[in-house]
Amino acid sequence: MRTWPRSGPASTSGWSATGWSGASPNLPCVSDQTWTEPGAYQVADGVHRVPLPLPMDGLRAVNVYVIETGDGLTLIDGGWAIPESRPLLEQALGEIGYALRDIRRFLVTHVHRDHYTQAVAVRREVGSHVSLGIGDKPALDLVAGPRTTDPFEERFTLAGAYSLYGAWRDLVTEPPDRRDWEQPDGWLEGDVRVELDGRALDAVATPGHTQGHYVFADREAGLLFAGDHVLPTITPSIGFEAVYTRQPLRDFLASLAKVRALPDLRLLPAHGAVTESSHTRIDELVGFHDARLAASLAAVADGAHTAWEAAQLLPWTKRERRASELDAFDAALAAFETLHHLELLALRGDLVRTELDGTVRFSMP
Length: 365
Description:
The chain is 29% helix and 21% strand. It has 365 residues and is an alpha/beta fold.
């Protein structure tokens, strides 16, 4: 059984946290399929990749990046605050001659629990400074505060997928531990320069996966700490957050273009192996969504009106499964992702959008 919120949309192979597979077999990888093995792996001078476990999750692991600076350590993301993760983080730090007390700061790419919660837990022990994008504040406030309803329930109605809600609700086994969702020490707003002792990072706002998502570019070293914005073998889920946003796909594509305008940096993703070209993968993701928008438009032309109806006409995962063959969690994600594609088509004028009794319906102009 899973708990809410999951570490981000994650589940079946090929369509996890993130979405369905869209990788090119020609994309060069620095590391291979063993990227989830625990340890500390040097990826650049003074930079180490530390994979931490995600049990009961199709993603299997999250990469935390440890940056050595003159005043100690800066970590990009913190991992999920679970018993399995902390010893492996401490062991990895020990391999490179450090301990938890050497962590001066966390730069968290976004608020999903596999990135944020362990940063908060470590801060309670050693006083590390935690930074997070301001766009994630509404979602953080909602998760951390008192809650009597599921913030996702209304979204099932919007997508015409309320029949899936009961199975989704059954996945919830425990409420989140509010201690893991305490406020950060600082909010990132806009694009800012983060000066470390001996290194500088460009913090680039990249809304889409969540509204507060950030990537961190080290131009001098040629590195892009990409979080879940650009992943090497799966597509990031769009708008999977507690606070609903109508146009996260528009935001995501704009963010891809923004990062594509940077130099072609090495891609250091939160899930998957390090790869040599961020531009190559961004181009693949843009091409994927262009094709998905065309397929979603064709689904409406073929008679689908709600997002869930359209999702059932589209293939899912690298195995091209039907939406009805997915588990409850992934079926819901399929409905939500299709809704975001249809919403963007309506915004562009390719579809007509109407809403009746809380359900959005789409039709050809």
